[in-house]
Specification:
Blueprint lengths: L5 E2 H8 L4 H9 L5 E3 L2 E4 L4 H13 L4 H32 L2
Antiparallel strand pairs: 1-3, 2-3
Length: about 100
Amino acid sequence: MTKQLISIHKICESYQIPDSFFEELRQFDLVPMEIQSGELMIDPSNLPQIEKILRLHFDLNINLEGIDVIIALLQQIEDLKSEITVLKQRLKLYEDF
């Protein structure tokens, strides 16, 4: 089964952004990309991440270095939330005794 991928060129047309923006994203490794037939492609599941990056960069004027830090911090927050949920579940087990 082959993965359905989206061309970076089509995304750039859709969001009206330059292709060079994705080359910069690729340098920072902010979004996983693949090369197929000489063209950069992404998995559609990465579109929400790309939209978040686009908003941060174009709407809030945050450079890619800042976006890299923001995304790392957001991931840490999500990891901590998951850990808190697990710990709460463990505590609940002890409360029942």
